[in-house]
Amino acid sequence: MIYLDYASTTPLNKTVMKEIKKYFYNIFANPSSLHFLGQKSLKAVDESREKIKEIINADFPNEIIFTSSATESNNLAIKGLAFLYFFRFKIKPHIISSKIEHPSILEPLKDLKNLYLIDYDLVDVDKFGVVNIDDILKKIRENTLLISIHYVNSETGTIQPIYKISEAIKIINEKRKDFKIIFHTDASQAPLTEEIDVKKLGVDMMTISSHKIYGPKGIACLFKKNNILIERLISGSNQEFSIRPSTEAVPLIVGFSKALEIVTRQRKIFRKKADSLRRYFIKKLKENKINFEINSELKLTSPKILNLFFPQKTSQEILIYLDSKKIYVSSGMACKSRSNQPSEVLSILYPNSERPFKSIRFSFGYETKKEDLDKVVNYLKKFLH
Ligand SMILES: Cc1ncc(COP(=O)(O)O)c(C=O)c1O
To answer: Residue 212 C-alpha to ligand 1 middle, in angstroms?
Structure first.
Protein backbone atom coordinates (compact mmCIF):
# COMPACT_ATOMS: atom_id res chain seq x y z
CA MET A 1 0.00 0.00 0.00
CA ILE A 2 0.93 3.64 -0.39
CA TYR A 3 -0.33 5.78 2.44
CA LEU A 4 -0.49 9.50 1.68
CA ASP A 5 -2.97 10.52 4.35
CA TYR A 6 -0.63 11.45 7.19
CA ALA A 7 -2.59 14.62 7.94
CA SER A 8 -5.51 12.39 8.98
CA THR A 9 -3.36 10.30 11.23
CA THR A 10 0.10 8.75 11.47
CA PRO A 11 1.17 5.24 12.41
CA LEU A 12 2.69 4.67 15.83
CA ASN A 13 6.44 5.20 15.89
CA LYS A 14 8.19 1.91 16.76
CA THR A 15 10.42 3.54 19.38
CA VAL A 16 7.29 4.98 20.98
CA MET A 17 5.67 1.54 20.95
CA LYS A 18 8.69 0.04 22.73
CA GLU A 19 8.64 2.80 25.33
CA ILE A 20 4.95 2.49 26.18
CA LYS A 21 4.65 -1.30 26.33
CA LYS A 22 5.84 -1.53 29.91
CA TYR A 23 3.17 0.93 31.03
CA PHE A 24 0.48 -1.49 29.84
CA TYR A 25 1.98 -4.62 31.40
CA ASN A 26 4.47 -3.83 34.15
CA ILE A 27 4.03 -0.31 35.45
CA PHE A 28 0.27 -0.40 35.09
CA ALA A 29 -0.74 1.00 38.48
CA ASN A 30 -2.96 4.00 38.99
CA PRO A 31 -0.82 7.15 39.38
CA SER A 32 -3.04 8.19 42.28
CA SER A 33 -2.14 5.03 44.24
CA LEU A 34 0.30 5.73 47.04
CA HIS A 35 2.18 2.43 46.74
CA PHE A 36 5.49 2.04 44.96
CA LEU A 37 3.99 0.91 41.64
CA GLY A 38 1.51 3.78 41.63
CA GLN A 39 4.32 6.22 42.27
CA LYS A 40 6.24 4.80 39.33
CA SER A 41 3.22 5.49 37.11
CA LEU A 42 2.94 8.99 38.56
CA LYS A 43 6.63 9.56 37.86
CA ALA A 44 6.10 8.56 34.22
CA VAL A 45 3.23 11.05 33.89
CA ASP A 46 5.23 13.81 35.60
CA GLU A 47 8.27 13.19 33.42
CA SER A 48 6.13 13.21 30.27
CA ARG A 49 4.51 16.46 31.30
CA GLU A 50 7.90 17.98 32.04
CA LYS A 51 9.19 16.84 28.65
CA ILE A 52 6.28 18.48 26.82
CA LYS A 53 6.69 21.61 28.93
CA GLU A 54 10.36 21.84 27.89
CA ILE A 55 9.64 21.18 24.22
CA ILE A 56 6.94 23.81 23.88
CA ASN A 57 8.84 26.21 26.19
CA ALA A 58 6.06 26.58 28.76
CA ASP A 59 6.94 27.94 32.22
CA PHE A 60 5.36 25.31 34.46
CA PRO A 61 4.43 21.64 34.09
CA ASN A 62 0.89 22.32 35.29
CA GLU A 63 0.36 24.40 32.17
CA ILE A 64 0.06 21.10 30.28
CA ILE A 65 -3.36 19.47 30.69
CA PHE A 66 -3.73 16.02 29.16
CA THR A 67 -7.00 15.31 27.36
CA SER A 68 -8.25 12.54 25.10
CA SER A 69 -8.00 14.39 21.79
CA ALA A 70 -7.46 17.67 19.99
CA THR A 71 -11.24 17.93 19.78
CA GLU A 72 -11.46 17.76 23.54
CA SER A 73 -8.62 20.25 24.01
CA ASN A 74 -10.28 22.75 21.69
CA ASN A 75 -13.62 22.28 23.47
CA LEU A 76 -11.94 22.69 26.84
CA ALA A 77 -10.27 25.93 25.77
CA ILE A 78 -13.40 27.49 24.30
CA LYS A 79 -16.13 26.17 26.56
CA GLY A 80 -13.92 26.34 29.66
CA LEU A 81 -13.49 30.07 29.13
CA ALA A 82 -17.05 30.72 28.02
CA PHE A 83 -18.57 28.91 31.02
CA LEU A 84 -16.31 30.71 33.48
CA TYR A 85 -17.10 34.16 32.13
CA PHE A 86 -20.81 33.58 31.56
CA PHE A 87 -21.72 31.72 34.71
CA ARG A 88 -19.24 33.03 37.27
CA PHE A 89 -18.44 36.53 36.05
CA LYS A 90 -21.89 37.10 34.46
CA ILE A 91 -20.30 38.39 31.27
CA LYS A 92 -21.37 37.16 27.86
CA PRO A 93 -18.01 36.99 26.10
CA HIS A 94 -17.20 37.57 22.45
CA ILE A 95 -14.91 35.20 20.58
CA ILE A 96 -13.13 35.65 17.26
CA SER A 97 -12.05 32.77 15.08
CA SER A 98 -11.72 32.06 11.35
CA LYS A 99 -14.03 30.48 8.80
CA ILE A 100 -11.57 27.71 8.04
CA GLU A 101 -11.09 26.27 11.51
CA HIS A 102 -11.55 22.59 12.25
CA PRO A 103 -15.09 21.60 13.34
CA SER A 104 -13.75 21.06 16.86
CA ILE A 105 -13.49 24.87 17.02
CA LEU A 106 -16.46 25.88 14.87
CA GLU A 107 -18.99 23.52 16.42
CA PRO A 108 -18.35 24.51 20.06
CA LEU A 109 -18.73 28.14 18.97
CA LYS A 110 -22.06 27.36 17.31
CA ASP A 111 -23.26 25.35 20.31
CA LEU A 112 -22.35 28.09 22.76
CA LYS A 113 -24.05 30.74 20.65
CA ASN A 114 -27.18 28.60 20.39
CA LEU A 115 -27.22 28.49 24.18
CA TYR A 116 -26.87 32.33 24.26
CA LEU A 117 -23.61 32.01 26.17
CA ILE A 118 -21.32 33.80 23.69
CA ASP A 119 -21.25 35.92 20.57
CA TYR A 120 -18.67 35.19 17.96
CA ASP A 121 -17.31 36.39 14.63
CA LEU A 122 -15.44 34.38 12.04
CA VAL A 123 -12.91 36.17 9.87
CA ASP A 124 -12.42 35.44 6.19
CA VAL A 125 -9.20 34.29 4.60
CA ASP A 126 -7.46 35.72 1.55
CA LYS A 127 -7.08 33.84 -1.71
CA PHE A 128 -4.11 31.94 -0.27
CA GLY A 129 -6.12 30.79 2.73
CA VAL A 130 -4.38 33.11 5.19
CA VAL A 131 -6.30 35.13 7.77
CA ASN A 132 -5.91 38.86 7.58
CA ILE A 133 -4.75 40.39 10.87
CA ASP A 134 -6.55 43.67 10.23
CA ASP A 135 -9.81 41.75 9.81
CA ILE A 136 -9.27 40.20 13.21
CA LEU A 137 -8.46 43.55 14.78
CA LYS A 138 -11.57 45.15 13.24
CA LYS A 139 -13.77 42.52 14.87
CA ILE A 140 -12.45 43.09 18.39
CA ARG A 141 -15.06 44.37 20.84
CA GLU A 142 -14.79 45.50 24.45
CA ASN A 143 -15.96 42.07 25.57
CA THR A 144 -13.72 40.07 23.21
CA LEU A 145 -12.27 37.40 25.45
CA LEU A 146 -10.74 34.88 23.09
CA ILE A 147 -9.18 34.75 19.65
CA SER A 148 -8.65 31.24 18.34
CA ILE A 149 -6.80 30.74 15.07
CA HIS A 150 -5.35 27.40 13.96
CA TYR A 151 -1.65 27.15 13.12
CA VAL A 152 -1.53 24.83 10.08
CA ASN A 153 -4.65 24.13 8.05
CA SER A 154 -5.44 20.43 7.85
CA GLU A 155 -6.75 20.57 4.29
CA THR A 156 -4.43 22.94 2.47
CA GLY A 157 -1.45 23.01 4.84
CA THR A 158 -1.56 26.81 4.92
CA ILE A 159 0.34 28.28 7.84
CA GLN A 160 -1.38 31.11 9.68
CA PRO A 161 0.66 34.11 10.91
CA ILE A 162 0.37 33.17 14.57
CA TYR A 163 3.43 35.23 15.63
CA LYS A 164 2.05 38.37 13.97
CA ILE A 165 -1.45 37.90 15.35
CA SER A 166 -0.09 37.54 18.88
CA GLU A 167 2.01 40.72 18.46
CA ALA A 168 -1.10 42.63 17.38
CA ILE A 169 -3.10 41.25 20.32
CA LYS A 170 -0.29 42.19 22.70
CA ILE A 171 -0.52 45.83 21.63
CA ILE A 172 -4.26 45.85 22.26
CA ASN A 173 -3.86 44.12 25.60
CA GLU A 174 -1.32 46.72 26.74
CA LYS A 175 -4.08 49.32 26.48
CA ARG A 176 -6.58 47.19 28.38
CA LYS A 177 -6.65 47.38 32.17
CA ASP A 178 -8.42 44.12 32.59
CA PHE A 179 -10.34 41.76 30.36
CA LYS A 180 -7.23 40.91 28.39
CA ILE A 181 -7.75 39.03 25.14
CA ILE A 182 -6.65 35.40 25.34
CA PHE A 183 -5.04 33.89 22.25
CA HIS A 184 -5.46 30.19 21.50
CA THR A 185 -4.06 28.23 18.59
CA ASP A 186 -5.01 24.76 17.45
CA ALA A 187 -1.58 23.47 16.50
CA SER A 188 -2.69 19.88 15.80
CA GLN A 189 -1.21 19.87 12.30
CA ALA A 190 1.95 21.80 13.15
CA PRO A 191 4.60 19.83 15.07
CA LEU A 192 5.91 17.69 12.19
CA THR A 193 7.15 20.72 10.27
CA GLU A 194 6.66 23.87 12.38
CA GLU A 195 8.12 25.17 15.61
CA ILE A 196 5.67 25.06 18.49
CA ASP A 197 7.44 27.27 21.03
CA VAL A 198 4.58 28.97 22.89
CA LYS A 199 6.74 31.97 23.83
CA LYS A 200 7.87 32.62 20.27
CA LEU A 201 4.32 32.08 19.03
CA GLY A 202 3.02 34.36 21.78
CA VAL A 203 0.02 32.17 22.52
CA ASP A 204 -1.80 31.77 25.84
CA MET A 205 -3.32 28.42 24.97
CA MET A 206 -2.36 25.78 22.43
CA THR A 207 -3.76 22.41 21.38
CA ILE A 208 -1.47 19.58 20.33
CA SER A 209 -2.43 16.05 19.46
CA SER A 210 -0.52 12.80 19.67
CA HIS A 211 -1.85 10.79 16.74
CA LYS A 212 -0.82 13.40 14.17
CA ILE A 213 2.82 13.04 15.26
CA TYR A 214 3.39 9.28 15.36
CA GLY A 215 2.10 8.96 18.92
CA PRO A 216 -0.82 6.83 20.11
CA LYS A 217 -4.43 7.80 19.49
CA GLY A 218 -6.61 8.85 22.42
CA ILE A 219 -4.29 11.45 23.90
CA ALA A 220 -3.62 15.15 23.37
CA CYS A 221 -3.05 18.17 25.54
CA LEU A 222 -4.05 21.74 26.07
CA PHE A 223 -1.31 24.16 27.00
CA LYS A 224 -2.84 26.86 29.15
CA LYS A 225 -0.88 29.61 30.86
CA ASN A 226 -1.26 29.45 34.60
CA ASN A 227 -2.80 32.89 34.89
CA ILE A 228 -5.70 31.87 32.66
CA LEU A 229 -8.64 30.39 34.49
CA ILE A 230 -11.14 28.08 32.87
CA GLU A 231 -14.13 26.12 34.07
CA ARG A 232 -13.73 22.37 33.83
CA LEU A 233 -16.04 20.43 31.53
CA ILE A 234 -15.82 17.09 33.34
CA SER A 235 -16.27 16.78 37.09
CA GLY A 236 -14.58 14.10 39.14
CA SER A 237 -11.44 13.63 41.19
CA ASN A 238 -8.43 15.90 41.13
CA GLN A 239 -6.33 14.56 38.26
CA GLU A 240 -4.92 17.08 35.79
CA PHE A 241 -5.07 19.79 38.45
CA SER A 242 -8.83 19.17 38.81
CA ILE A 243 -9.35 20.63 35.34
CA ARG A 244 -9.70 17.31 33.55
CA PRO A 245 -10.35 14.54 36.06
CA SER A 246 -10.18 10.78 35.37
CA THR A 247 -7.42 8.23 35.77
CA GLU A 248 -4.44 9.24 33.66
CA ALA A 249 -3.88 7.25 30.46
CA VAL A 250 -0.29 6.56 31.48
CA PRO A 251 0.93 4.59 28.42
CA LEU A 252 -0.65 7.10 26.05
CA ILE A 253 0.78 10.07 27.93
CA VAL A 254 4.26 8.50 27.85
CA GLY A 255 3.84 7.74 24.15
CA PHE A 256 2.64 11.23 23.33
CA SER A 257 5.61 12.90 25.01
CA LYS A 258 8.07 10.50 23.39
CA ALA A 259 6.49 11.10 19.98
CA LEU A 260 6.72 14.85 20.45
CA GLU A 261 10.36 14.51 21.45
CA ILE A 262 11.10 12.52 18.29
CA VAL A 263 9.27 14.80 15.86
CA THR A 264 10.90 17.83 17.42
CA ARG A 265 14.32 16.27 16.85
CA GLN A 266 13.39 15.28 13.28
CA ARG A 267 11.57 18.49 12.36
CA LYS A 268 14.21 20.20 10.23
CA ILE A 269 15.11 17.01 8.37
CA PHE A 270 11.49 16.11 7.76
CA ARG A 271 10.56 19.59 6.60
CA LYS A 272 13.31 19.36 3.99
CA LYS A 273 12.30 15.87 2.97
CA ALA A 274 8.60 16.76 2.69
CA ASP A 275 9.45 19.82 0.64
CA SER A 276 11.55 17.75 -1.70
CA LEU A 277 8.78 15.11 -2.00
CA ARG A 278 6.23 17.78 -2.73
CA ARG A 279 8.37 19.40 -5.43
CA TYR A 280 9.17 16.01 -6.93
CA PHE A 281 5.49 15.07 -7.06
CA ILE A 282 4.57 18.34 -8.79
CA LYS A 283 7.44 17.95 -11.25
CA LYS A 284 6.38 14.40 -12.13
CA LEU A 285 2.74 15.37 -12.57
CA LYS A 286 3.83 18.11 -14.96
CA GLU A 287 6.23 15.85 -16.86
CA ASN A 288 3.39 13.40 -17.35
CA LYS A 289 1.13 16.16 -18.62
CA ILE A 290 -1.48 15.58 -15.97
CA ASN A 291 -3.89 18.49 -15.77
CA PHE A 292 -3.87 19.85 -12.22
CA GLU A 293 -3.65 23.03 -10.16
CA ILE A 294 -2.33 23.58 -6.68
CA ASN A 295 -4.93 24.70 -4.14
CA SER A 296 -2.47 26.74 -2.09
CA GLU A 297 0.55 28.97 -2.28
CA LEU A 298 3.45 26.61 -1.62
CA LYS A 299 5.55 29.25 0.12
CA LEU A 300 2.82 29.67 2.71
CA THR A 301 2.15 26.03 3.49
CA SER A 302 3.58 23.21 5.52
CA PRO A 303 5.33 20.93 3.01
CA LYS A 304 3.67 17.84 4.49
CA ILE A 305 0.37 18.74 2.74
CA LEU A 306 -0.27 19.18 -0.96
CA ASN A 307 -3.84 19.81 -2.04
CA LEU A 308 -4.44 19.49 -5.78
CA PHE A 309 -7.34 20.22 -8.11
CA PHE A 310 -7.88 17.70 -10.96
CA PRO A 311 -10.51 19.15 -13.35
CA GLN A 312 -11.24 15.85 -15.16
CA LYS A 313 -12.70 13.84 -12.27
CA THR A 314 -14.42 14.29 -8.95
CA SER A 315 -12.59 13.81 -5.69
CA GLN A 316 -14.64 10.72 -5.02
CA GLU A 317 -13.86 9.14 -8.37
CA ILE A 318 -10.15 9.68 -7.82
CA LEU A 319 -10.31 8.47 -4.23
CA ILE A 320 -12.11 5.29 -5.18
CA TYR A 321 -9.77 4.61 -8.09
CA LEU A 322 -6.63 5.15 -6.03
CA ASP A 323 -8.11 3.11 -3.21
CA SER A 324 -8.55 0.21 -5.63
CA LYS A 325 -4.78 0.45 -6.24
CA LYS A 326 -4.12 0.48 -2.48
CA ILE A 327 -3.17 4.16 -2.54
CA TYR A 328 -4.73 5.99 0.37
CA VAL A 329 -5.35 9.71 0.05
CA SER A 330 -8.10 12.02 1.17
CA SER A 331 -10.35 14.70 -0.24
CA GLY A 332 -10.19 16.87 2.85
CA MET A 333 -10.79 16.33 6.51
CA ALA A 334 -10.92 12.64 7.34
CA CYS A 335 -13.65 13.14 9.89
CA LYS A 336 -15.95 14.68 7.26
CA SER A 337 -15.11 12.44 4.34
CA ARG A 338 -17.91 9.97 4.99
CA SER A 339 -20.46 12.75 4.63
CA ASN A 340 -19.77 12.96 0.88
CA GLN A 341 -19.59 16.75 1.10
CA PRO A 342 -17.05 18.87 -0.77
CA SER A 343 -14.12 20.17 1.21
CA GLU A 344 -15.35 23.00 3.43
CA VAL A 345 -12.08 24.87 3.41
CA LEU A 346 -11.85 24.74 -0.38
CA SER A 347 -15.50 25.79 -0.64
CA ILE A 348 -14.58 28.95 1.25
CA LEU A 349 -11.38 29.52 -0.71
CA TYR A 350 -12.98 28.84 -4.08
CA PRO A 351 -16.68 29.70 -3.86
CA ASN A 352 -18.86 28.94 -6.90
CA SER A 353 -16.18 26.69 -8.31
CA GLU A 354 -15.91 23.00 -9.02
CA ARG A 355 -12.58 22.85 -7.19
CA PRO A 356 -13.95 21.74 -3.83
CA PHE A 357 -15.55 18.77 -5.61
CA LYS A 358 -12.49 17.84 -7.62
CA SER A 359 -9.56 18.08 -5.27
CA ILE A 360 -7.38 15.63 -3.43
CA ARG A 361 -5.21 16.13 -0.38
CA PHE A 362 -1.90 14.29 -0.45
CA SER A 363 -0.07 14.35 2.85
CA PHE A 364 3.43 13.02 3.35
CA GLY A 365 5.10 11.27 6.25
CA TYR A 366 8.46 9.88 7.32
CA GLU A 367 7.85 6.68 5.33
CA THR A 368 6.95 8.39 2.02
CA LYS A 369 9.38 7.65 -0.82
CA LYS A 370 9.82 9.17 -4.25
CA GLU A 371 9.10 5.74 -5.77
CA ASP A 372 5.68 5.81 -4.11
CA LEU A 373 4.97 9.12 -5.77
CA ASP A 374 6.11 7.73 -9.14
CA LYS A 375 3.51 4.98 -8.77
CA VAL A 376 0.79 7.45 -7.83
CA VAL A 377 1.64 9.63 -10.83
CA ASN A 378 1.48 6.59 -13.14
CA TYR A 379 -1.94 5.61 -11.87
CA LEU A 380 -3.21 9.17 -12.07
CA LYS A 381 -1.93 9.40 -15.62
CA LYS A 382 -3.85 6.26 -16.56
CA PHE A 383 -7.01 7.43 -14.85
CA LEU A 384 -7.04 11.07 -15.84
CA HIS A 385 -5.92 10.90 -19.48
C1 LIG B 1 -6.38 21.18 12.93
C2 LIG B 1 -7.09 20.06 13.60
N3 LIG B 1 -7.70 20.29 14.77
C4 LIG B 1 -8.33 19.33 15.43
C5 LIG B 1 -8.41 18.04 14.91
C6 LIG B 1 -9.19 17.02 15.68
O7 LIG B 1 -8.43 15.94 16.02
P8 LIG B 1 -9.13 14.67 16.72
O9 LIG B 1 -10.17 14.18 15.77
O10 LIG B 1 -8.01 13.72 16.90
O11 LIG B 1 -9.72 15.13 17.98
C12 LIG B 1 -7.81 17.77 13.70
C13 LIG B 1 -7.90 16.43 13.09
O14 LIG B 1 -7.87 16.24 11.90
C15 LIG B 1 -7.12 18.80 13.01
O16 LIG B 1 -6.53 18.58 11.85
So the answer is: 8
